[in-house]
Amino acid sequence: xxxxxxxxxxxxxxxxxxxxxxxxxxxxxxxxxxxxxxxxxxxxxxxxxxxxxxxxxxxxxxxxxxxxxxxxxxxxxxxxxxxxxxxxxxxxxxxxxxxxxxxxxxxxxxxxxxxxxxxxxxxxxxxxxxxxxxxxxxxxxxxxxxxxxxxxxxxxxxxxxxxxxxxxxxxxxxxxxxxxxxxxxxxxxxxxxxxxxxxxxxxxxxxxxxxxxxxxxx
Length: 218
Ligand code: DX5
Ligand code: ZN
Known about the structure:
Layout: E1 5-8, H1 18-28, E2 33-38, H2 50-57, E3 64-69, H3 77-83, E4 87-91, H4 98-107, E5 111-116, E6 134-138, H5 153-167, E7 172-176, H6 184-189, E8 194-197, H7 199-202, H8 207-217
Parallel strand pairs: 1-8, 2-3, 3-4, 4-5, 5-6, 6-7, 7-8
Helix pairs in contact: 1-8, 2-3
């Protein structure tokens, strides 16, 4: 048993009954609620914007972890902060204004984070560490839930963990995509402490048991 945080991804929820789905995750023991925002430009899929975050904010006290898969996130961080996000993470590939945007997120009173996609060299996140409360490593190509964990992600996660250690900063290390009961142990060992899971949790017959099992296997 370890002190990981579990963040169910609502991308795998039934959007037609979102409030119920969110409460289901709360009761199941989620630590954060991971909210995937997609614009159809940065990724080949579209989800929702600040209004969904504001509406979810009304029905739960769980911290909202808003993962922005959108180009020029600097244009929208204020709207997501006002909507009630507790964390806002932005992709290093999506903006020319990475550090200023991370600073802007913090100035809005929200925890900030930089994200890297699977083909981005891990070192590209280093300039962002000073301005990040969390870093997120994508272990699938962003855009869709239910994909297979990319094998190279474990080595990349170890590399990221080493960078964070070297920085001597207290930064959460989040991983997102293809996490299951079968790979959680090695993922934890490689340094992640915030675990996003969509299909594994929403697809389970008993999400509470699954979250408990994820914790005990980590
Ligand atoms: C993918 C999203 C993920 C996704 C994970 O672009 O960022 O958060 O929902 O889903 P699973 O856990 O099913 O791979
Ligand atoms: Zn995500």
